[in-house]
Amino acid sequence: MKLFPLHPVIWSSLLVLWFPQCESEGHTLNACQEKMDDQYEVKINLPKDHTDMLAMVLIRTSAQQDSYKDLTDIKEKFICLLYPTNELNCSWSFNTLEKDTQLSVFISACDDEILVESLNYTSVERAGSASLILRNNMAEVILHFNKSKQHKWTSYTYVYDMDMLELLSPPPNIYASVKDGALVVSWGLPRTREVINPYCFEYQLDKGDQEQPMYLIAQQSYREPISDATRTYKLRMRTRITNTCSGSSQWSEWSDTVGVVVHNGSTDGS
Predict the structure, then answer these.
(1) What is the pLDDT of residue 227?
(2) What integer is the mean pLDDT of 76-84?
(3) Alpha helix (H) ranges present in the chain?
(4) Distance CA 17, CA 136 (A)
């Protein structure tokens, strides 16, 4: 599984990002409420040909300079994934962080504009992760980083819709057999929090033959002729949402291995 995606869909918002002030004055950042108010203001003030900035990362500095950048255009890397167990895991890598720079992370899980769950670490290592168990029916997750040195700071803010966070489980009910001189593999639809069209799933099938896994899209079975009547297959699969549908671009974990031993056209499965 790749640690960082090349093109996650991230909703940015203008927040009043005042972490140093929060820590000194004892305030609580209501990121969910601020996001709702400021995102509306951004939308009505952006020129029509710049509305795509709403899908970018917001970077703000202590000099009150705001900019929007694509994730692939910044050196800092971070991502949040929601596992089937309802565990939200956010990872980051600030490998270019200068010496004596303090890095803070704030994670907010929102139900509309209501803050439901949150994590706040005022000092973390330049590379690390944080986890949070979420309740069901969250609307979005706001991920905010603040790096500060002396009196200067830079902040980074992402807002994830929940469907962009979900890391799928491997395809269920994988079954393999030999029929009419061919290897036949079938599997069930991956489980998701939302009902998704079967055409939105793509798969990788690893046959254990040291070749690159096969890509399969919008199907639940695979068939190939058997050229070796004594071959042993060790099959496993993983899945993700295609880039034509809304969802995470991260591959699931690999499934358990399904073994198939071919003896003169018959099958011994395990």
Answers:
(1) 76
(2) 90
(3) 19-25, 31-45
(4) 27
What's residue 264's pLDDT? 58
Contact 119, 80 (CB under 8 A): no
**Cβ neighbours around 101 below 10 Å, total:** 16
Among 52-56, 76-80, 107-111, 184-188, where is mean pLDDT lowest?
A: 52-56
Give percent above pLDDT 70 in the chain.
77
Q: Determine contact, residues 54/11, Cβ cutoff 8 Å.
A: yes
Tell me the two tokens of residue 112.
């509309």
Instruction: Provide the token pair at 75.
Output: 């050196």
Residues 170 and 254 sit within 8 Å (Cβ to Cβ): yes
Q: Find the largest Cα–Cα distance for the chain.
A: 77
- Chain-centre distance of CA 103, in angstroms? 22
DSSP string across 241-268: E-TTSSS--PPPPPPPPEEEEEETTEEE
Distance of CA 76 to the CA centre of its chain: 16
34 token code pair: 């601020």
The tokens 């009547």 sit on which residue?
Answer: 229
Total-model pTM: 0.71
Bridge partners (DSSP) listed for residue 269? 260
pLDDT at 221 over 70: yes
